[in-house]
Amino acid sequence: MKPFDLELRAEALDESTGLSWLWAFLFGPFYYAVHSFWPRALIILLLDFLVIGFLISPFMAYPAWKERARQRAEREFMLMAAARD
């Protein structure tokens, strides 16, 4: 497995949209909960009580999607490697 191949596959698996930041801003913890980003949903919910959660929430959307895509790509490569053995 080459790192370049992994990055290309992760980019293909990225499900974020151009408006992910907007939905995260508007719906806050509900956006993250619907997409199963539970730790981020809890963090934003707690920070919403301090009012800064609304400001931080949009900046956490893209990294969440990138991280999920990379994990899925790594899992696919591991499964392919296991199938070859």
Describe this structure in words.
With 85 residues, the chain is an all-alpha fold. 80% of the residues lie in helices and 0% in strands. It contains 5 helices and no strands. The chain has helices at 3-13, 20-27, 29-34, 38-48, 53-84. The protein starts with a helix and ends with a helix.
H/E element string? HHHHH
Give the integer mean of the pLDDT values: 84
Helix content: over 70%
Distance between the termini: 14 Å
**Share of β-strand residues:** under 5%
Major beta-sheet overview:
none
SS-derived structural category: mainly alpha
- So how many helices? 5
The residue ranges in which pLDDT falls below 50 over 5 or more consecutive positions are none
Multimerization state:
single chain
Radius of gyration: 15 Å
